[in-house]
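Chapter summary example: a protein plus calcium ion.
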Amino acid sequence: MSQYSLEKIIICFAFTLLLMQGCQRAYSTRDSPQSSAPTEHSVSEPSSVKVAVNNSAATTRRDGMVLIKGGTFVMGTDDGMPYEAPAHEVAVKSFWIDEHEVTVEEFSKFITATGYKTDAEKFGWSGVFNLKTGEWEKTDGANWRHPEGPKSKPQPDEPVSQVSWADAQAYAKWAGKRLPTEAEWEFAARGGLAGKRYSWGDDLRPNGKPVANWWQGNFPENNTGEDGFIGRAPVESFPPNGYGLFDMTGNVWEWCADWYADDYYRKAVNNNPTGPETGAERVIKGGSYLCAENFCTNYRVAARSHATPDSGLDNLGFRCVRDE
Ligand SMILES: [Ca+2]
Ligand SMILES: [Ca+2]
């Protein structure tokens, strides 16, 4: 094993531990009757924060992208994890964003046109969540063509996964686009709603039904598949948010351009924030099909997590944006 590979193993499993620790904190506090952890239907933004959401939902579409008109919104929450606070007002410029996560079919066109080799293909392995054991596993031969290992094959209309941050950047550059900033991503995900817990409102199951691909049942031992999907779902399987964007909640996590820092929101960068200048990990947003009510609830719109840039996982993908 080369030193490079060994470093990747250490880095990837460090990420996994961090991600699971983040989930475990939420799980532990939720388990306690004295918990002050957030509960469903209990979220409200502080009244002292002036909300000036652009409610003129974007209707301009072109080439699979939606124009999000610039505006001001309240980013983060005071009722979630400490690193999601404080809720703070942020302004973003207008931008175009992909209607859905980049699919396997779209990514394959990039590979065919460029001959690009992804990080997971170079390493020869990637991270796969074993639904039977409930654990992350280093899996030889796992990559975007075979997200769960050599015998697996994704559908063309599924979101591409097992792509590193560099892979996502390379695709975006080829497509004449870029990765969204964390602020752009959250502004778009909120879909014109102010201070809501999810991209559609405050009820996890509006009208009693899941409206996104997340994990129903007790994680990790039981996935009931109530939403119709145990793993990744074809993009656009669920209704879009108020801006016409699909799967901003769940399905696969999505890479953002920003470096990650726990305390970044406390620095109160309010005008088109682009994240810390340096860091070790990049922001990921939106949660995935592995996010469960009893564990991490990272399908909340203010939720944020992070991964080392070379991470490849079978629940991590991306979408792109473009300047207006
Ligand atoms: Ca599901
Ligand atoms: Ca997503």
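Key point: The pocket of calcium ion (ligand 2) is lined by residues 101, 247-248, 250-252, 254, 286 (CB under 6 Å).
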